[in-house]
């Protein structure tokens, strides 16, 4: 058994090294004074100061951040409604078609999704003069993709949730909307946060859909990085990646702390309520 345990640990360590060594190399070489990544010439912060003067990168980052925030929020809202409908209403006309349409972006290549949305928007623009390709079209595409992921995450949590809670609330006189807001939403808060973080990340680093749906003057940060990477190595790309990793790490740590804190508070409330009932 010890052999299998050590083999499992070694295999797990190799997997972690394979995943995280490139990220660590990227962070280290963001402080390299040379433009060539694989040649260390000394420590410098010049590339960080140069990034603050790069207006193209800054505008692309702000556009990507704005789209990611809106797309994540819209995906979670629409995904919550879709998951609630699929979980609570087992039989309604067109349920199989609806479930298939919601889940199709998960298995369909992004190239196909981007091309189909591009053709749709071009047709609409010819017929109605709207929408022109830009922030709205990118946001729409990211929301279509993010909604599918959000629905899966939220639906899995709803399936684990006991229906007796909702039934008890309705027996006490709550209306369906009150049951949803007072019982269902508080119990799926962690799933909502997980779905929001997942869709935010998918939107922030998406290249394929953005490349199909972007227009003149609307280049997101991943598109700018991809276009510069094709022209040669740029240390400012390493700086962007380092800052992104730092921001994501802080966000994950903070959200994890909030989730653990909320779970502990909920467990304390449950134990206090149980002790109060037993004392009676």
TrEMBL record:
Keywords per UniProt: Cell membrane, Membrane, Transmembrane, Transmembrane helix, Transport
Segments forming domain ABC transmembrane type-1: 61-258
Keyword Phosphoprotein carried by entry: no
Record carries keyword Transmembrane helix: yes
Principal location class: membrane
Membrane topology summary: Multi-pass membrane protein
CDD domains per the UniProt record, alphabetical: TM_PBP2
Subcellular location: Cell membrane
PROSITE patterns: ABC_TM1
Transmembrane segments: 6-31, 67-86, 106-124, 136-154, 179-200, 239-260
SUPFAM superfamilies: MetI-like
InterPro entries tied to this protein: Bact_Polyamine_Transport (IPR051789), MetI-like (IPR000515), MetI-like_sf (IPR035906)
Family membership: Belongs to the binding-protein-dependent transport system permease family. CysTW subfamily.
The protein, known as: ABC transporter permease subunit
Species annotation: Undibacterium curvum
């Amino acid at each position: 058994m010890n052999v299998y345990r050590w083999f499992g640990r070694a295999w797990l360590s190799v997997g972690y090294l394979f995943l995280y060594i490139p990220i660590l190399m990227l962070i280290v070489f963001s402080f390299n004074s040379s433009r060539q990544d694989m040649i260390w010439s000394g420590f410098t912060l010049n590339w960080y100061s140069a990034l603050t003067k790069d207006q193209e990168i800054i505008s692309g980052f702000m556009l990507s951040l704005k789209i990611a925030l809106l797309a994540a929020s819209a995906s979670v809202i629409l995904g919550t409604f879709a998951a609630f409908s699929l979980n609570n209403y087992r039989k309604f006309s067109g349920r199989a078609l609806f479930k298939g349409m919601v889940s199709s972006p998960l298995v369909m290549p992004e190239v196909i999704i981007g091309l189909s949305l591009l053709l749709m928007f071009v047709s609409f623009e010819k017929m109605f003069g709207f929408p022109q390709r830009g922030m709205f079209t990118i946001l729409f595409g990211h929301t279509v993709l993010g909604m599918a992921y959000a629905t899966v995450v939220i639906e899995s949590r709803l399936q684990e949730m006991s229906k007796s809670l909702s039934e008890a609330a309705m027996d006490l006189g709550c209306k369906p909307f009150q049951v949803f807001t007072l019982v269902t939403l508080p119990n799926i808060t962690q799933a909502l946060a997980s779905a929001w973080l997942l869709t935010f990340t998918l939107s922030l680093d998406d290249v394929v859909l953005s490349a199909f749906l972007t227009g003149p003057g609307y280049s997101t940060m991943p598109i700018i990085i991809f276009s510069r990477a094709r022209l040669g190595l740029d240390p400012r790309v390493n700086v962007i990646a380092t800052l992104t990793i730092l921001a994501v790490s802080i966000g994950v740590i903070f959200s994890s702390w909030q989730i653990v804190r909320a779970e502990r508070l909920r467990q304390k409330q449950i134990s206090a309520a149980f002790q109060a009932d037993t004392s009676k």
